[in-house]
């Protein structure tokens, strides 16, 4: 890689920044301000600098830039992304969670209280660094929860759900490590507001995403499977009636490496550069 | 296999009945009443015959015997099992759920309302029959929920939690199929009652199971992993503080084929026959 | 599927025939002779009708058509495929084996005697039918040989190697089932002819395939991995020096479902229809 | 771990030495000579010190002790092990290869020339160190050969096959990494000597191992599966007729962590200490 400081950006319109969390604030601050940037790290996702410093345990390195950063969950912030200079590409868990919850909270169909997110991820979510805990022999044929109640995607989720509902939302979020390379599922337990039915939730989400290329609300009763989005930029969603009256179960699946990371980054860049939004993203899911 | 009708039971003290759900009521009814029986099917688990007929969609074939059947979750019903003639061996999900919840409900430490169980199982839970949905190519590298809000283990769980709390408990129960052969985890979200702390829950469970061979409450903060009980009769448990005040997250892992099935059946038989309870069950977990 | 007998083929130029072995001879014989056909079954792969009947244990149902069938290993028979009316698409193992061996035998660089093929395949090679032997719980975390010395791909391999070397070649062929959905490797042990070196083999294969889109001879010393061709139409090849003087080890990897089946069928159809040969086949390998 | 230099061995009869290759020569040399030792590293496996230094690329640190070391493939060297002071526990591949080949070479039933060993191993064979190449995402759903013609188990195999046949044997040995945690298979291609049949090989091996607890020659035609020895100290063997006249295919499976490592070490220690040879080793294979 060419060192950033020596790079000639004079003929470059836009860059992806795929560097580790905690390193991109300084780097992006040093780039020409004419350059459009999609940052795949967590460095610009949290609008509140104090919250950033608390969860990431380090000072923020580009406080001035933070205000400019647009949170790039494409389907929820398309207009802002299209004109953005700097996009903070969302985390994988937050993408899978916000796609169903933000529209339901905005429409005041579900309660802001008692939202429980039981999330499951393939191992590539942990990156490619050589740690004992990610060895084949540790992962294969077993599973476990991790980061219970303190995963760094929590403040990102709460920031966006709070914005959608105009009140401070706190969620229960428990991620699990599943023996598969790719794939992510969020199983979300919510309380429906008085007078609202599960069918209403399904109808609302269906309408909200009816013109979207990459977010598919499945027909009633059809259960999303991670294998049906593997290797693709799709999110599959559905809503189910719970046994406990007044509760619903929402299931959302994505490929954590595509819609949950690089695919959504490309989607954002397409918007920022005024390309067709699906350019380079029409690779179909691979099964088996 | 010797046909049951032709078998000579004169020199037999006890039998395991490992036949499909829906076939053991008639068979066990035809056995000599002196014979001790552990039934691994679901045929005698539900005390309410009507509920059985509703969930299993068939008439009960041995209503008289049903009253005699003892629900065999060993650690919770040891005395009754020891003197039982007929034991209904519990389902795998119900075993993993009841071990932490029954003591907490009995002690009135958690609410009977809003209990949410997000359960995950390896593929052997679906048995060995040749179905497309259980092929390697369908299961590997993907996951999905199934039987949402209508899995047949729900009435079994609700029956026992209701008995423990002396009121009608309804639970949210969502099982998931995980790409592994063995292993089961229940992630359980509960509301703590006023004045009770997560430490209180941990202490209560630790005391309740301190003399048990097979139920291990892990030290505070240690996350149970299914791989640590693989191939063994152990259940590993722990309780965690949630972000939302007043809520706790309970994690319980077992090997669905051992403590969740045949291991617990052997444990019950050992009790019924007055053998040492751990006879034949000391195989250690296999890792990797 | 529209029944073949009722189908209107008047506006169709070509068809893929993806039906089970033993059913396509009659069907293809009943099609209009103007229609171009790529048959993915084994029905037309063996030129010798008697050999077909012996290995497949049934009479040949379209002896007349057999003469017309072109064996469609694209890189080895491109001209014949381009003008063919009926193409017999090769088996997966034979594809991985012939790509390196046919050029070396044609150039008389290796011995026709003592060729040993130790082959490994992912489970999708066994199809999607619901058999106990293909269940996740049977396959995961274990492996085994099968069809030792009597796999039906043997006569197909020997037919083509014999044609390439103008003498009757017999091979040792042992396939193994590996716990993975896709991917195939043939590890091939050969004797080099007098005066020939392993470098000569590498150079010959490199030249032979230098203009090919889908067959890549790796640089000296680089070991092919099935994961590097997963989901793609590529074949990766290399040749290695053995410890025993005068012997070489050839490794060839493909995705059994793409270059080993449907991908090669598309490649053949592209040629027959005068489309660009790589149309629809440029999907890149998926990793992880 | 207590540092070796400070340890009090006065009440110890025997030790296992489970330290990395290249570290045990010095350590064992420093132990009291009354202590019985089973060394699981490769440090004492090669009788020829020069060969050790060439393959392991370091000077031998205990040349004097080397002469004393007994190569501990239990079934083949039981008497020497029983009276040994220092046992060099064999490698996993060499164990799977020698169990069938040594008796056949000793009985002069197969040729010493052209022995081809295509070996497959689960990932635990690579140990538990945190290397990128052993991550779940690198290993799952793919396979590859490695160490072609230069794996360090080659000199160990050749040393023992040469001793068994009283002539210098060279083998072709190609190991492969398979996506499974445990399990090892050697598929071995041999030439049968004139006048000998495959049935003779099967009969000879069956007789040779008929009284062995842990080496099972399967009935004719039954293919060994690694899953049938998983977690156990068993080796399953069989011999098959090849298509090429005069050749046979031998398949040998073990669990690389048990019979291929610690299980065989315990078996050797049992012999050295005059315990029952199967003490601690009767854990049955785990399936699934």
Task: Outline the secondary-structure elements.
Four copies of one chain form a homotetramer.
Chain A: E1 14-17, H1 24-29, E2 36-39, H2 49-56, H3 63-66, E3 70-71, H4 78-82, E4 86-88, H5 92-106, E5 115-121, H6 136-139, E6 144-145, H7 153-165, E7 171-177, E8 184-191, H8 198-208, E9 215-217, E10 235-241, E11 247-254, H9 258-272
Parallel strand pairs in A: 1-2, 2-4, 3-4, 5-7, 9-10
Antiparallel strand pairs in A: 5-8, 6-7, 8-11, 10-11
Helix pairs in contact in A: 5-7
How would you describe this structure to a colleague?
Four copies of one chain form a homotetramer. Chain A is an alpha/beta fold. Chain A has two domains: 4-90 and 261-272, NAD(P)-binding Rossmann-like Domain (Rossmann fold), CATH 3.40.50; 92-259, Dihydrodipicolinate Reductase, domain 2, CATH 3.30.360.10. Helix content of chain A is 28%, strand content 19%. Chain A has nine helices and eleven strands. Chain A has helices at 24-29, 49-56, 63-66, 78-82, 92-106, 136-139, 153-165, 198-208, 258-272; strands spanning 14-17, 36-39, 70-71, 86-88, 115-121, 144-145, 171-177, 184-191, 215-217, 235-241, 247-254. In chain A, the strands form two sheets. In chain A, strands 6-7-5-8-11-10-9 form a seven-stranded mixed β-sheet. A four-stranded parallel β-sheet of chain A has the order 1-2-4-3, with helices on one face. In chain A, helix 5 runs parallel beside helix 7. The first copy, chain A, is globular and about 60 Å long. Chains in contact: A-B, A-C, A-D, B-C, B-D, C-D. At the C-D interface, strand 5, strand 6, strand 7, strand 8 and strand 11 of C face strand 5, strand 6, strand 7, strand 8 and strand 11 of D. Chains A, B, C, D: It is an enzyme of class 1 (oxidoreductase). Chains A, B, C, D: InterPro entries: AGPR, AGPR_AS, AGPR_dimerisation_dom, AGPR_type-1, NAD(P)-bd_dom_sf, Semialdehyde_DH_NAD-bd.
